[in-house]
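User: Please fill in residues for this 366-position structure.
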């Protein structure tokens, strides 16, 4: 009896490891995020320490609960113009193809020079041709960015911190990409942000303005994105019921820009973890942070129009020259929210000339 059992076991033994491996694969897939070390964070220690120093200076220079009237703030650059400004933050890893269109946008407003600042974070590993004009000397010290990683969060925070330090009159911070275009004139954008918001927000008391950032919790893939770093990896700082989704591009108030750069431990230590599965950290970090910090201070919608009807590999629809027309611009402006869309993406570089052809007659004619 013992001999026959031994014989059977010996003959079956070559199949046993294979069978065990096949049965254990689902279990290994489930437990791997808990028992295996995560891959190294794609942000070096040097870059992290450099950023911490920048964020600390920006946060210290801008108390989080300071409600100083914007008209009394003084510029670091010595200007005596009392008007608050919009900080336009361009996050790019290629040429600013639409710089000539933005040049027109900034120059067509009445006294627009004293009402905006420009800051550009360009991936230093990519050769980028300086656009010149109003973009001259607007590049900030930048670090490498990588899709589906926390480097895009770090780059946006770097832009916010630099703008906070540079000019105390920067009151709104508009994050844009190289594929974004304006849909209105500068005066229209400025008045929409600074003047048309006040009656609607009277009930908020001391909160004079709100941030325009998409904050949503209804996407079917939210749990998949939440578990992308491993099961329960976001706990305890970020419970799933507080996890949010939103557009990568937004317009933040100064108060919320300060809140973002002040975050060094709570949210950042979780979102800086690399994803085991596919995820887009920049679409979750800012909506989640501001939703937990100050949900009533946000509109929960963005001012940048994006067409996701035929997205490909996480990229939205890219508009090309044959699609461009006055009717498209009018359509892109339309919104179901209180404010119209002020910006739009994504446009191919060869759209520049057709856009310039309708800039005066359509885009900047409100």
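Assistant: Residues filled in for all 366 positions:
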């Amino acid at each position: 009896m013992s001999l026959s059992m031994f014989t059977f076991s010996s003959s079956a033994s070559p199949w046993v490891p294979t069978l065990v491996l096949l049965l254990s694969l689902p279990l290994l897939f489930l437990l791997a995020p808990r028992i295996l070390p995560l891959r190294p964070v794609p942000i070096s220690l040097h870059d992290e320490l450099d950023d911490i120093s920048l964020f600390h200076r920006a946060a210290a220079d801008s108390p989080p609960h300071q409600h100083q009237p914007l008209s009394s703030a003084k510029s670091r650059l010595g200007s005596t113009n009392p008007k608050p400004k919009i900080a336009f933050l361009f996050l790019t890893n290629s040429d600013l193809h639409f710089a000539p269109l933005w040049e027109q946008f900034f120059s067509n407003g009445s006294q627009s020079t004293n009402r905006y600042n420009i800051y550009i974070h360009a991936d230093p590993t990519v050769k980028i041709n300086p656009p010149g004009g109003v973009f001259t000397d607007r590049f900030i010290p930048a670090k490498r960015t990588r899709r589906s990683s926390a480097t895009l969060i770090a780059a946006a925070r770097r832009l916010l911190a630099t703008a906070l330090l540079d000019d105390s009159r920067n009151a709104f911070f508009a994050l844009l990409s190289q594929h974004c275009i304006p849909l209105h004139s500068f005066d229209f954008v400025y008045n929409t942000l600074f003047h048309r918001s006040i009656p609607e927000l009277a009930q908020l008391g001391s909160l004079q303005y709100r941030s325009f950032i998409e904050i949503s919790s209804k996407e079917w893939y939210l749990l998949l994105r939440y578990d992308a770093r491993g099961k329960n990896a976001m706990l305890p700082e970020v419970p799933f019921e507080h996890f949010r989704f939103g557009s990568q591009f937004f317009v933040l108030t100064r108060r919320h820009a300060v809140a973002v750069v002040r975050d060094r431990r709570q949210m950042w230590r979780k979102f800086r973890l690399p994803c085991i599965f596919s995820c887009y950290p920049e679409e979750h970090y800012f909506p989640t942070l501001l939703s937990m910090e100050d949900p009533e201070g946000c509109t929960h919608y963005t001012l940048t129009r994006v067409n996701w009807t035929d997205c490909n590999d996480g990229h939205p629809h890219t508009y090309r020259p044959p699609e461009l027309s006055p009717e498209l611009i009018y359509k892109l402006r339309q919104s179901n929210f209180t404010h119209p869309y002020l910006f739009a993406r994504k446009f191919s570089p060869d759209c520049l000339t057709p856009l310039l052809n309708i800039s005066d007659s359509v885009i900047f004619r409100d």
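For context: Confidence is low (pLDDT under 50) at residues 1-12, 25-40, 65-81, 197-207.
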